Amino acid sequence: MDMKQFPIRSFDERVQFMDYTWIISGTIYDGGSEKLLEALRLREINECYFYNVASTPIGKKTVAGVAESFDVETFHVLVSADQADNIFEFIYEFCEMHEPNKGIMYMNKLSKSTVNLLPDLEENSQTELAS
């Protein structure tokens, strides 16, 4: 049996990859990700977002019709390796994950990430954009 060779991907040499980025992800069963993101932004962690997830409780009897649901949110926070443990601990305490049925969190190292630096706009360039 002949094994097919996958083409070797060549990356753009102008793009600089970082190998020290971690992602902290979690699910909060009672909601509250908005407050968490505000607290993280006060600590200058801006690479974070959340979204709502449709969910129903496990083990509850349901009746015909619309099932009971509750507010569940999933969040993701990107941090550098030197901040990862401290931010993970902060989120754990802030969301009270030590209490039962509050949520779940985990942390993974990203294999690659890039920096997205926006250029500084000068007054001349803003007038060019306006016209």
Automatic annotation (TrEMBL):
It comes from the Bacteria. This is Nitrogen regulatory protein P-II. It comes from alpha proteobacterium IMCC14465.
